[in-house]
Amino acid sequence: MGRRPVIDRERVLGLAEDILLRDGPRGLTIEALAKAAGVSKGGIQSSFGTKNDLIAALMDRWQAEYDAQVIPLVGASPGPVEAVRGHLRATIDQTDEAYARAAGMMAALIETEQHVATLRDWYRGRFGELDLTTPAGRRARLTLLAAEGAYMCRAFGLMAFTPEEWRSLGQDLDALLAGEL
User: Fold this and answer.
1) Which of 81, 60, 61, 82 lies closest to 73, judged by CA?
2) pTM (predicted TM-score)
3) In whole angstroms, what is the distance from residue 6 CA to residue 39 CA?
4) Distance separating alpha carbons of residues 40 and 44, to the nearest angstrom
């Protein structure tokens, strides 16, 4: 009897991301991923479960990458305003490839309420402690929402920014957060 192939989860998640970006959420199927990975559908299902479980694994991967970007900027347990500052820096510093990945992720997330709820929890966990009774808390909320809006516009190709315009936007949002605007 032959040995069962070992599935490299990170490689398969990378292939899933590639399919998601190339073919959209509908193109990311267990069958398409198995074919791309050169394994059986059962192997993918054994490693990840359902398509929703696969997307949840992608979300976990993206969240770990985000944390790896933000923690060096503000530490592992930043206060609410510092969390927004770290998020802003990570947003402004992302590459064009990261924005393309974000658009694919968002398209996949809106397919099911389960993933939308996970994302809501993520935002609440990182930014839910802002004290909106203070000017600093209100500026942080406004900065966060402005950064996310700009991020979405860029990720979905709704607005184009030159590198200088993007850096300038980041500087303006930094100034808003600091109360200098």
Assistant:
1) 82
2) 0.81
3) 9
4) 7
CA distance 5 to 142: 50
How many percent of the chain have pLDDT more than 90? Answer: 60
142 is written with which tokens?
A: 């406004």
Is residue 174 within 8 A of residue 91, CB to CB? The reply is: no
Whether 108 shows a pLDDT value over 80: the answer reads no
Tokens of 92: 């402004």
* Residue 37 backbone dihedrals phi, psi, to 5 degrees: -85, -15
Contacts of 129 (CB under 8 A, 6+ apart): 79, 80
The residues spanned by each domain of the chain are 75-178
Q: Cβ(156)–Cβ(150) under 8 Å? A: no
